[in-house]
Design brief:
heterodimer, A: alpha+beta, Ubiquitin-like (UB roll), Fumarate Reductase Iron-sulfur Protein, Chain B, domain 2, 2 domains, 7 strands, B: four-stranded antiparallel β-sheet, two-stranded antiparallel ribbon, 7% strand, binds FE2/S2 (inorganic) cluster
C-alpha cells in the first residue's frame, strides 16, 4: 500500500520547523513505527536525515512513543499506543499528517520528539511512599481488598506517554497526575504522604505550565491505557481536603 | 507473548507437513499436540528452552503455521469451553488484547500463532555477592548483572531481579561500601575523566566521518541474523566457528562503511544507535566464544553435539560446573576466561526429565 505522509520536521529546539511531504510503500502487517523505519532507511539511502521519533519497547508498555496522527494522539485506534497501531487499519492512498505533542510544557527537541521531563518532575514531587520496604512483609499483615488493589492497578497502568496533555485543549496534565495520585493514594502504604502528595504534585504540574482541567474528557478518549476521568476527581478531592487540612 | 499463557493454552501444529488449512478445519485427529505427546507429565508447561526448541523443530519439519511457516498454534478453545470466556478474559485479557492489536486476529476465536524470539542473553556483568562489579564502587543491579540466571532465564524475572536486588540487597551492601570507603573529590580535570572524554569524542567523530554506504540498521540486522542462526536455540562448533569469523568481518565493514548522518550537537538517534550496534559486535562475539567453550548442553545453551538419545540437553557437570567470567583485555583482544566454580551442597544438578 502507498501512503503520503506530511511530517513535522524540526532540526533542533530553536528551529522554526515545517511540514515535509514523503511517500512510502507499506505492508499491512507492519506497525506504524516499522513503516517509519522503512521510510527512514529510504531517507538515509537518499542522503537525507531520518525522522526522529521516540520509541523503546514497541509493546505498548513503556510510554516512550507517541505523536499526533491526523490530529489524534496515538492515532485512530482506541486504547492503542502508536507502536501497537498496525498499518492494516489504513488504506492504499491514505494521506497522514504526523506532528509532535504540542504543549508549552513539552518543548520539541527534534521532529516528533518532545521533552517530557516535566512529568518526571511531577513524579519526583510526590510519586513515592515512605513505608519501609526493606524486607518482604508478612503475607497478611496489611490486607488490601481486591477492588482497592484493582483500582490502584488500573491507575498504575498509566505509562506516562503524554497523550492526555497533547489531546487536552488546556494542555493539562490532570489525567497523568491524577493517575499517579490514585495509584498510591488508594493503598494503605500510600496513606502517610497522601495529602502532601496531592498538594505537591498539583503544585508542580502548575509550575510546569500545564493547564487546568475543565472536564472536557479528551484525555480519557485518547489514553492508550484507558485511565478514567475518576482519577482526576480523586486528585481534586485529595487536593481540596489537603488545602483545608493545611489551613487548619 | 508472555510465558504465562501456556498455563491454559494448548500448543499444536498439523500432523502433515505443508498443511495450509485454517486451524478450524483441521480435525482433532490431524493435530499434533507435540509438547503433550513428548512430555506427558509436564505437557505445555515444560521450561521455555524446551518449549522453544520444540517449536523450532516442528517448524524445521515444515509443520509451522501462518504465512511464514514460523509459528505454532497456542489454542485456548479447550480452556474457554472448560472455564468460560470470562475466566479467560480475567486471566489473560490484556495479553489477548495485545495479540489482537499486533495480528488483527481474535484469540478468543482463532488460536494464537507464536514463535520463540530472542529476549535475553543469560548473562551480564560479573558482580560479587554484594553486587559490586570489578570496578570498586560500581554496583550492577537487575538483569544487567549475571547473578540470577543460569542455563535458563526464569519467567517474569526482570521484575523479580529488579526487586530482589533493589530492595533486599543494595540498600545494605551499598551503604556498607559507602561507610567504609574513602571518596576523594574528583573533578573534570582528573586524567581519567579527560581520557574518557577524549575517547568518546574521538569515537563520535569517527562514526560521523565514515560516510559509507550501509545504514546502521542493515548491519545490525545482518549481525542479528548471524547470531540467531549460529548461536540461537541450537548451536554447534561448526556454526559457532563460522560466526566467529563472520562477526569480525562485519565489525570491520561497520567501521569502514557505515553511514551515520547528522552531527553531535543536537539529538541524533542514528548516532545513538550506531554506538550501541558498535558494542553489539563485541557482545555477539563474546556470546559465540562462550558457547563454543562450553562443550555441554544445559538449558538454553543447547549444543547439538551434546544431547541425550531422545534429543534433550546433555549436561556435563564433571567438566563444566562453573560460571565462565570473561575478562576484557582491550579492544579486539580475546577476553580471558576465569572459571568460577559452582558448588551445590544439598541439591545436586541432574539430568532433567519432563516425561
Ligand atoms: S514504544 Fe513503548 S509504549 Fe510505544
Amino acid at each position: 500500500m502507498k501512503l503520503t505522509l506530511h511530517v513535522w520536521r524540526q532540526k533542533s529546539p530553536g528551529d522554526r520547523g515545517r511540514m515535509a511531504r514523503y511517500e512510502v510503500q507499506a505492508n499491512p502487517h507492519m506497525s506504524f513505527l516499522e513503516m517509519l523505519d522503512v521510510l527512514n532507511e529510504e531517507l538515509l539511502a537518499k542522503g537525507e536525515d531520518p525522522i526522529a521519533f521516540d520509541h523503546d519497547c514497541r509493546e505498548g508498555i513503556c510510554g516512550s512513543c507517541g505523536f499526533m496522527i491526523n490530529g489524534v494522539a496515538h492515532g485512530p485506534n482506541k486504547a492503542t499506543t502508536v507502536c501497537q497501531l498496525h498499518m492494516r487499519h489504513y488504506r492504499d492512498g491514505d494521506v497522514l499528517y504526523l506532528e509532535p505533542w504540542r504543549a508549552r510544557a513539552f518543548p520539541v527537541i527534534k521532529d516528533l520528539v518532545v521533552d517530557r521531563c516535566a512529568f518526571d518532575r511531577i513524579i519526583a514531587a510526590g510519586g513515592y511512599i515512605s513505608a519501609a520496604t526493606g524486607s518482604a512483609p508478612d503475607g497478611n499483615a496489611v490486607p488490601v481488598p481486591k477492588d482497592t488493589a484493582d483500582a490502584s492497578m488500573d491507575a498504575a497502568a498509566c505509562i506516562g506517554c503524554g497523550a492526555c496533555v497533547a489531546a487536552c485543549p488546556n494542555a493539562s496534565a490532570s489525567l497523568f497526575t491524577g493517575a499517579k495520585i490514585t495509584h498510591l493514594g488508594v493503598l494503605p502504604q500510600g496513606q502517610p504522604e497522601r495529602y502532601d502528595r496531592a498538594l505537591r504534585m498539583v503544585a508542580q504540574a502548575q509550575q510546569e505550565l500545564f493547564g487546568s482541567c475543565t472536564n472536557i474528557g479528551e484525555c480519557e478518549a485518547v489514553c492508550p491505557k484507558e485511565i478514567k476521568l475518576e482519577v482526576i476527581a480523586r486528585m481534586n478531592r485529595d487536593f481540596i481536603k489537603a488545602s483545608w487540612l493545611r489551613r487548619k | 507473548m508472555s510465558e504465562s499463557l501456556r498455563n491454559d493454552g494448548r500448543i499444536w501444529v498439523p500432523k502433515t507437513p505443508g498443511d495450509k488449512r485454517p486451524p478450524s478445519q483441521i480435525p482433532e485427529a490431524e493435530r499434533d499436540y507435540y509438547l503433550e505427546r513428548r512430555y506427558p507429565s509436564f505437557g505445555n508447561l515444560v521450561p521455555r528452552d524446551v518449549a522453544s526448541r520444540n517449536a523450532k523443530a516442528v517448524c524445521d519439519e515444515q509443520r509451522g503455521v501462518g504465512e511464514t511457516g514460523l509459528g505454532v498454534y497456542l489454542d485456548f478453545a479447550g480452556a474457554i469451553q472448560r472455564l468460560g470466556v470470562e475466566a479467560i478474559r480475567e486471566r489473560y485479557g490484556n495479553l489477548f488484547d495485545m495479540y489482537e492489536r499486533i495480528t488483527g486476529e481474535d484469540p478468543y476465536r482463532v488460536p494464537m500463532r507464536i514463535y520463540p524470539a530472542i529476549h535475553y542473553t543469560m548473562g551480564g556483568l560479573w558482580v560479587d555477592y554484594p553486587l559490586m562489579s570489578t570496578i570498586p564502587g560500581l554496583f550492577v543491579i537487575g538483569e544487567a548483572n549475571f547473578s540470577d540466571h543460569g542455563a535458563n532465564r526464569l519467567g517474569a524475572s526482570a521484575l523479580m531481579q529488579g526487586l530482589a536486588d533493589g530492595y533486599f540487597i543494595l540498600p545494605y551492601t551499598m551503604g556498607n561500601y559507602l561507610a567504609g570507603a574513602r571518596l576523594d573529590k574528583v573533578d573534570a580535570a582528573h586524567p581519567a575523566c579527560r581520557e574518557a572524554e577524549t575517547g568518546v569524542a574521538e569515537r563520535t567523530r569517527k562514526l560521523l566521518s565514515i560516510n559509507g554506504k550501509r545504514s546502521v540498521d542493515s548491519l545490525h540486522r545482518e549481525l542479528g541474523k548471524v547470531v540467531w542462526d549460529h548461536c540461537g536455540m541450537g548451536r554447534n562448533a561448526q556454526g559457532l566457528e563460522y560466526a566467529l569469523t563472520k562477526i569480525p568481518e562485519l565489525r570491520e565493514e561497520f567501521w569502514r562503511n557505515v553511514n551515520v548522518r547528522g552531527g553531535n550537537e543536537e539529538l541524533n538517534q542514528s548516532l545513538e544507535k550506531a554506538g550501541r550496534v558498535a558494542d553489539y559486535f563485541e557482545l555477539a562475539e563474546l556470546l559465540c566464544m562462550d558457547a563454543l567453550a562450553r562443550q555441554e548442553s544445559c538449558g538454553g545453551h543447547f549444543r547439538e553435539e551434546y544431547q541425550t538419545p531422545d534429543g534433550e540437553a546433555l549436561r556435563d557437570d564433571e567438566n563444566f560446573c562453573y560460571v565462565s567470567a570473561w575478562q576484557y583485555q582491550g579492544e579486539e583482544q580475546k577476553p580471558r576466561m576465569h572459571k568460577e566454580p559452582l558448588r551445590f551442597d544439598y541439591v545436586k544438578p541432574a539430568q532433567r526429565s519432563y516425561k
